[in-house]
């Protein structure tokens, strides 16, 4: 069924069903042995069908990054190591797929997933997660084949950005009872995403969920208004809608 699975760069109903099975194994509680075998199977899937993750829509790459990153925070060191190595494999394979130019697709989806995990997973960003980031860096530094490419420095930049996001989030938690400091920290993080609409939208969505959880509905509404303006601005620049349809610019918010 390889040809059917590869149709439309892997974005077809059959591949979706196959991928959902793999994803289900990651989303349900498994034994340590079962998880290790799932990670091995995922390596084979990524290797055989790279276009599914690196071409066209990013939904499968995004879902996979999210689930792998959750295991990078596992209480079991062996699972953290396996998850970190699988995430590294996903990035490395992306780099090879582009002719050793970049791994922009995986880079972006990892940052987005981390931003989502901050709101969804308790304890993300602690010592265990930091150790996983170090494992990923070590993998890049010890990979002789790509030693003289930009890949190791790009991986270092990615883990640095993740740590920046986690640090800012930790500071927000520390100052959650200081509204003015909290607003400043939130603004700084959102501003750091200004050049990447997908990341800025992800952070605003995370902020909105936190506000809803705390009962701050007006603040959540403002986040969603900002998201709507961001999407409208993006679609206008792509020529998909006319600016006359709306009167607000995302840069004025």
From TrEMBL:
Keyword set includes Glycoprotein: no
Species annotation: Atlantisia rogersi
Similarity comment: Belongs to the DOCK family.
The DOCKER domain, residue ranges: 191-253
Gene (name only): Dock9_1
Lineage: Eukaryota, Metazoa, Chordata, Craniata, Vertebrata
Keywords: Guanine-nucleotide releasing factor
This protein's name: DOCK9 protein
One of the protein's GO biological processes: small GTPase-mediated signal transduction
PROSITE patterns found in the cross-reference section: DOCKER (PS51651)
Keyword Metal-binding listed: no
């Amino acid at each position: 069924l390889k040809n059917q699975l590869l149709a439309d760069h892997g974005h077809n109903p059959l591949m979706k069903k196959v991928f959902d099975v793999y994803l289900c194994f990651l989303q349900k509680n498994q034994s340590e042995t079962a998880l290790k075998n799932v990670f091995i199977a995922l390596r084979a899937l990524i290797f055989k069908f790279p276009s599914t993750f690196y071409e066209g829509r990013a939904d499968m790459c995004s879902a996979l990054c999210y689930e792998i990153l959750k295991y990078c925070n596992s209480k079991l060191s062996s699972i953290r190591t396996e998850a970190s190595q699988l995430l590294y494999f996903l990035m490395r394979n992306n780099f090879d797929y582009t002719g050793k130019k970049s791994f922009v697709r995986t880079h972006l989806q990892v940052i987005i997933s981390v931003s989502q995990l901050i709101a969804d997973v308790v304890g993300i960003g602690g010592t265990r997660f930091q150790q996983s980031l170090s494992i990923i860096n070590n993998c890049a530094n010890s990979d002789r084949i790509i030693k003289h490419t930009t890949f190791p420095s790009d991986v270092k930049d990615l883990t640095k950005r993740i740590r920046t996001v986690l640090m800012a989030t930790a500071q927000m938690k520390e100052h959650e009872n200081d509204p003015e400091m909290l607003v400043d920290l939130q603004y700084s993080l959102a501003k750091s995403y200004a050049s990447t609409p997908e990341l800025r939208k992800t952070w605003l969505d995370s902020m909105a969920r936190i506000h809803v959880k705390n009962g701050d509905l007006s603040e959540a509404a403002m986040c969603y208004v900002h998201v709507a303006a961001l999407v409208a601005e993006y679609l206008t620049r792509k020529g998909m809608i006319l600016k006359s349809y709306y009167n607000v610019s995302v840069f004025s918010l």
